[in-house]
Model the fold of this input.
Amino acid sequence: MARAIEVSGLDKGFTLHLRGGVHLSVLDGFALEVEVGECVALRGPSGAGKSTVLRCLYGNYLPDRGTVSVRDGEAMVDIATAGPREILALRRSTLGYVSQFLRVVPRVGALDLVMEPARERGLDAGAARERAVTLLERLHIPERLWDLPPATFSGGEQQRINIARGLVGEHPILLLDEPTASLDAANRASVVELIKMAKARGATVVGIFHDREVRDAVADRVLDIGSMGAAA
Amino acid sequence: MTALATQALPSRAHNFAYLDEQTKRMIRRALLKAVAVPGHQVPFASREMPLPYGWGTGGIQVTASILGADDVLKVIDQGADDTTNAVNIRRLFAKTADVATTTRTEEATVIQTRHRIPETPLREGQILVFQVPIPEPLRWLEPRETETLKLHALADYGLMQVDLYEDIAQYGRIAQSYDYPIEVHGRYVSSPSPIPKFDNPKLDRNPALLLFGAGREKRIYAIPPYTRVKSLDFDDHPFTVEKWDRPCDLCGATDSYLDEVVTDDKGGRLFCCSDTDYCEKRRAASAEKGMP
Amino acid sequence: MSEAPLLRASGLGKSYGRIEACRDVSFGLWPGEVLGVVGESGSGKTTLLRCLAGEIEPSSGTVEFRDLQDGFLDVHRMSEARRRFLMRTQWGIVHQNPRDGLRMTVSAGANVGERLMSAGARHYGRIRTEALEWLERVELDTARIDDLPELFSGGMQQRLQIARILVSKPRLVFLDEPTGGLDVSVQARILDLLRRLARDLGLAVVIVTHDLGVARLLTHRLMVMRQGRVVEEGLTDQVLDDPHDPYTQLLVSSVIGA
Done:
C-alpha cells in the first residue's frame, strides 16, 4: 500500500514575543504514517497538539523542524519546506480541510460559499452547484437558507456549512478538525455517512473526533497524542 | 469693390507689414516647422500687436510674416469683408505693407480669415491664414499643458473620442457644431479654429496652404496643400454637416453656409450667405443673365 | 511550478532624501495569485505599490513585467510611451479614492469605454454594449450608464473604477485600500466581487491594505511591512494564524477578526 502521509521529527512551538518571548512547545519529535485510503483519528487531551498536527499538515502552521510529506499524485511533497504557491496548489488539488471556525466573506450566500472550493478545483459552475446542493441536502440545510449568508446561522448550521466546504472538492486527503462538535445525532450520522463515502472513493482521512461513536464508525486506527505530542 | 490700387500715403513709421524682419524670420521658422509636421502646434514668440489678444493677433502675425509686395490680400471676418475687424485689419496691411487688397476670393494670394473658409474653392498658390483662439483641441478635457503635450506626442487621443461618445450619450448625436476636431495627415488631432463644421470638408486635400496662428496662446500650426484631413467621428455616427431647408434669400445659393439675419421685431428674418463675396458674385452673375 | 512569474520585484527601494520609504523588497507574482501587502500607515506599503505600478520611480532595484510577446521588461527603464500603454491595457490600478481613478466629468459609460476608445475602438454602439456588460459584471444598475460618477455612492464609484480598468482585460491589477472609506456592509460585496473576478479572469492582484480581515479573505499570500521593510511573508493564513515576527504578532493580536 502506498503512503499518503509521512510525518517525521516534527517539532512545533510558538514564541510569544508579546509575552516576553516565552516559548511554548506543542509538538516534539512527532511522527505519523498514514496509508492511502486509511482513516486515522487523533486522540488526546485538550492542548495536546491534535489541531496543531492538522494545521501543520495543511500548511497553516509552519513547523520548526522535521518533514511533513503528503502524496501528490506519484510524488511526496514536503509541506514544511514547500513554497506558498506549491502549498496553494496542493490545497486545490489534494488537501481538504474542515476547520472549527467558519471564516468566510460576509454577505455571500451559503450555496455560493459551498460551491467555492469546487470551483477552485476546476469544476464549472453547473457541476459545482450540483455537488454543493447534494451536500447541503445531506447535511439537512433547508433550501430557504441556501441564499443566506451563514453569519446568521446557528452554530450547528455553520459547522455543517464548514463541512460541506471541506468535502465538496472531493480531495484525496481530508483533514477534519472536530467536524461533529456542535451537531445533533441526526447530523452526526450524516457526517459519518459522508466520511464513509469519501473513504469509499479512496480518500485518506486524518481527523479529530470528540464523539466516540463517530470515531468508532469511521476510524481505521486511533493515534493517542500525549501532552508533549509524542505518539503513544 | 474692385481690387484697390496702392494706397496714396503708405506709413513710413513701420517696417513692411508692421513687424520687424527678425520677428518675421522667427515666425517663418515656426511656419516651416509647422508645415513639416502637419497639425502639430509649434510655439512661437508672439509679439505685442496694435490690438489686444482675442482680436486676431495670431493671424495678423502670420500674415505679416508671409506678405510680399506683390501679394493681393483679402481679409474676412465670419465670411464678410465689411465688418469692422476685417476692414481694420485690411487697412493695417494696406498702410504698412502698401499691398494690394481685394474682396474677391479668386483674386487674392493671401486670405486672412476669422471663423470661416470662403465658399469659392481655393487653388494652388493661395494661402489661407486662420485666426485661432485656443489651438489645443484637448484643452477643455485636459487643462494641464504638460499632459496635453504628452498626449499629442504619444498620439494618445482616447480622451477626445470619449468626449464625442459623451455627446452622443447625452444628446443623441455629436453636438460640436464649430471648432470640430480634425485628424491631420493621419497623425495629429487639431483644432480647425472656430469655423462651422460645415467648412471642415473644405480642409481635406485643399490645394491651398492653410496656416493657423494663435497670438495669445503663442502657437502656430499648418496643413500643407493636399493633406488628408478627417473630422473625428464614430463608425456608426459619421460626421455630418449642417443643412438648411431654404436657399439664400439674396442669391438663391443652396450650397453655402447661411447666416440668419433678424430684419424686424415682428419675427421677420432672412437667411443669406455668410460669405459676402460669394453671394455678391452670384447676384452679379444672375443680374447679367437677367434673372430675378 | 516552473512557469515564470508575471511580475518580479528585486531589491526594490524608494527614498525621499534621507527617508527610506521602502527598502529591499523582492518577490514574484504569478497569474491568478492575490498578494496582500499589509502594514500600518507609514509602513511604506503605498510607496511600494506606486513603485510596482509604475507611478513613481524607485531609488534602487527593479520591477519587471512579463509581456506576452517580449518577455521580461524593466518597467522603469522602458519608454514612457510604452509604460503608459501598458498601464492602460495590461495593467489596472484601483485607487483608494475613486475620484483619483475616474473621470468625474464624463458619464459612467464613457468612463468604462475610455480604454476601448484609447485602443482605437470607433463603433459607438459596440463600445456602449461592452460598457453595459461590464457595468452588469460589477453589479451596477445598467440604467445608470449615462449618469455622472458624482451621482454614485462611494461603493458604486469603486465598482465603476473596477469596471473601467477590467474592460481592457488586464493581466495585473493593483488595488490601493480598495475598501477603505466604504461602509462595512458595502466592503463585503466589493471583496466578494474582487475575489470572483480575480478567479474567473485569472488576474494577478497586488492589494495594499491595513485591514487584516480583508487580507485574510482576499489574498493568497501576504507581506507584512513595517517602517519600509518586509518583516514577514508567506501564505496568508499561515502568517495570520502562525505569526513569527514580533510585529506581525502585535498586528494580529490587535485586530478584531484578523
Summary: The mean pLDDT of chain C is 90. The beta strands of chain C are 7-16, 19-29, 34-38, 60-67, 71-74, 91-94, 172-176, 204-209, 221-226, 229-235.
